[in-house]
Specification:
It contains four helices and seven strands, in the order E-E-E-H-E-E-H-E-E-H-H. It has about 230 residues and is an alpha+beta fold. It has a five-stranded antiparallel beta sheet with strand order 1-3-2-4-5. The protein has a two-stranded antiparallel sheet with strand order 6-7. A hairpin with a 2-residue loop joins strand 6 and strand 7. One of its GO terms (cellular component) is cytoplasm. GO terms for molecular function: glutathione specific gamma-glutamylcyclotransferase activity. Its main location: cytoplasm.
Amino acid sequence: MVFWVFGYGSLVWNPGFEYDDKMIGYIKNYRRVFDLACIDHRGTPEHPARTCTLEYKEGATCWGAVFCVRGDEEKERLAMAYLENRECEYDQKTTVDFFKDGAIDEPTLSGVIVFTSTPDKESNKYYLGPAPLEDMANQIATAFGPCGNNRDYVFSLEKAMFDIGHEDDMVIELANEVRKVLGITGLGIPKENSSSNRLTGPPLKPKSPMSPHKLLRLPEAISMDT
């Protein structure tokens, strides 16, 4: 028994389940968007967080990580049960082709599972739809839930994509807009009284120097949830 699942959000840095293999790569004709509500991890029903889902777009690519679970039926069942519980806001499982870095024409894997959501507010109660960048940043900057702040999700995803060598311009733009809402510098220090009002927790330290014209140093990251 074997299955592969593609992660494009928190699975990239925090899979949370036992897996046997992992590869970095991409899927075609999908892009990452922050159009899905999270009400049980980084948000609440009253103040939902925004987390990413996939939007179909011809010619787009979405980078992430694919994980393999192989073994007996019980091992596969446990992994899938964990994923279905964790990704409960996603109402679809889509199968896609996966391409490793460098692969263009022939997929490395076919039939890879990816959790997606129906982009319709009537049939999918978790679908928020698109919003102006400033509105999304304000929502993300203030939402929090049992597993932490919504902003940490965005900052962790920003760093995770940097770490695998495939930064997402949209994630960087959104993360920097959230920083503006929070009134913090690239080091995670409030603009006023910066010597005494640091955000809780140490700033993340990247594996290598970040590009100064695109990616600001992160204020904090807490990987606790989905």
